[in-house]
Amino acid sequence: MGFLAHDAALLIVVLILVLRCAGGGAAAVQASGNVTIPSTATLAHCPKMCGDIIFDYPFGIGTGCFRDPDFEVICNHSTQPPRLFLNDGDTELVDGISFSLPANSPGLAVAFSRSIPMISDVDVYNVSWTAPGRSFVASQIQLNFTGCDFDIYWLRDIDSRALVCAVTCPSEGITETIARQSCDGIGCCSSTFPTGGISSLKFQFVRRNSKVEGQARTEGKTNRSSLWDRISVETDFMLLSWGVVLDQQPDCAAAAKNKTSYACVSEHSTCTYELNGIYPSYMCKCRDGYNGNPHVLGGCLPGYNPNPQKVNCSRSCGSISVPFPFGLEEGCSAREEFLLNCTDAVNSTLMYGWDQYVSEINVGKGIMAISSDAFPVFGTLYAQSTATQDLHWAVANQSCQQAQQDISAYACVSANSTCLGVNSTEKFVSNTYVGYRCKCVDGFDGNPYILNGCQDIDECETTPGICGGPCHNTVGGYYCTKCPGKTQYYDTTKKQCTQAKRQPSLLFGIVIGFGAGFGILLLGLSTLLFANRWRGEVEKKQRRKYFLENQGLLLEQLISSDENASDKTKIFSLQELEKATNNFDNTRILGRGGHGMVYKGILSDQRVVAIKKSMIIKQSEINEFINEVAILSQINHRNIVKLFGCCLETKVPLLVYDFVPNGSLYQILHSATSSGFLLSWDDCLRIATEAAGALSYLHSSASVSVFHRDVKSSNILLDANYTAKVSDFGASRLVSIDQTHVSTLVQGTLGYLDPEYYHTGQLNEKSDVYSFGVVLLELLLRREPIFTSESGSKHNLSSYFLWEFKTRPIKEIAATQVREEASEEEIKSVASLAEMCLRLRGEERPTMKEVEMALQTMRAKRFKSYQAAHENGKEMHGLIRLRAKDSSDHSFAQVGYSVDQPSQRWCSLEQEFISSGEVPR
User: Which residue positions form the known binding site for ATP?
Assistant: First the structure.
């Protein structure tokens, strides 16, 4: 029953729309009649900017400046700065329209707003938004709704509506701006809508407390804000996808035949059919190797610039050389993808992107050596080696033949250089062509990407004795000659031939030979003995050097000063660990991770341990590492992997942990071959409770708070009794009591990473809570954090759950085994707990202590149901079990339960439940 209302600026835009009708019509006639193919010359008079927003054809202002009426834009100059709207005068562009880089899915960042005045005795209001033409659909939408005591419904169609969210009245004096900052349901609520081709949105607002509100209005309150007088809708984020709509043509090939209406007019452009959910439609993009605007003649330009635009560019980051075509500043690289960032010149910290550390760039071999603590993401010009972390790069996605046809953009500018193809070496990809690179021809060395960069190699100087006689260098090669006459001996030091000596007598030669041989034998044995002793001393000194550099004395002092430690951390020698791992044999490798490699070892006292060799760390991080070892060594919790000690006699310290034999929770939940059985619902609740207790201990009960930063199911290990053991503190950070967060480089695992931590870089205890929420979803839904649906599309587990949890009963999305073993109340409780852990704002999430207590409460309720069933003499085969793929291979005895003796089974559960509450913290 409500009506749309717009602000004063929008009314001005509507007036502009009325006044421009004639111009729009002219553009439409032009589109259907004699079309002038757009070029830089024909569009020279067209505006390209409105305020701070830049746009380009097919969008435009004025006759002849846009493709058809859908793409006309309006610049509202009544505001400062001016604002840019699409043709409806309602949908505002909040970011520019650029073709500077290739676009696989063109999208416009837009916004719209609605404000509805509330009328006495009117309880239902309607709001709608429609895409500004058939060329557009909304693909990503997040809206904020402000008001007082309303339920907001999404009207999907005439007979169907879904509750989006609800708002309650805040305290008096709270403004819309303040309510929108938290948008937690008090005065404001927020909702995200699924991606896809949405051409319109319709919402209905239903007042819940109309009688009370109406009475309050009559009291004449004057200190209330507009929250009590109107309903507002604003976009938090909205992406509008667009394409060129086809009228009759069935595909790109047919559309290209009509030269007067075909949109992809640039020489190096191509067409992609039916993208963005607009049917039927196509989009234009520049071919591989070209960037720019495909809708304009000559708009697609080569993506490589062989001449740097800036002079006096810096070409080093500390000790790392950064040669052209790479650069450290705008205008110093050949293309944007080759722009690197020197974050710390003193420590030679060179970055590609936000998480790739570059240690070397070899232009001759076309290799960039990188290392990363996060999931690597590379552009189309890079191919990663399967054997190393090196990146093989190309200067453009073209073949050598294609590149040489445009000499102005050809990268191999140095004389004596040549062009080579670059193929992908990714696993499971066979000989996939990436592009081309340059190298100096044989006999030359240097940088083929700059003029005169390939210089002659003097083989006679670089390889002394290459000829065995006189050597003569030439441009690109060398040649050899023999020593003349009796001067048959060539002295490589003096670089000249010398006179040959007279041959001694045979007997004299034999005596000299035997003497020399015996002397050489004695000398060799003496040298060997001396070398072994010297090598041992050198290794001993080297180990001592590493021990001191790794602050071994400090760690010894920290350990010895801890009088309360019952089982002190041991500092192992390298010899002990080499013996325990058979000199770090490859057969002893348990796994490779983002922070190092783990070996299985057997100590002299027959303890089985896991020995972790970490990746190279900076010298500046050694003190922090020692402090972490000292703190973690004091952690004595049954659900945290015990740290036995460390070895400081290597460049990178080694850590020695207790060996956990039954793998990880991830392997049992998601691997079809690793375990051969499935965990029961009782085991899942127990493991979740144990892991939550361990994280709670780290956050609040340890002497110094520890943020794990990489909580995931693969870091929850299971011992011989399937007891949870939280592991892998390679990414953890220690926090003093007075700190609420720490700022760090973002690290974590895709699917588990806290969005708030990702955007702010500020780590706090709630980041671990978010990751633990994903683990709860794995136990409840039995899906991986990034999983592939039956349709073949990839989904993020947390996003999938949060959307489905709003629209479907939780029992429909829970795993089949969970539905069979758990009660509906338990499933709802775990789902609600996971939803609270996954909230976008960390302050809205519970603490790990609260999560642990909630899980303990669930287990207590379940235990009481077991006890009641036991007292009533009921069978509990459906309550306590370990499901096996083959029941003949796995019995309940594996976890202390007996199939034939229900009373023993109940007692085992009772003992396990009681013992879990008596664990020392």
Answer: 618
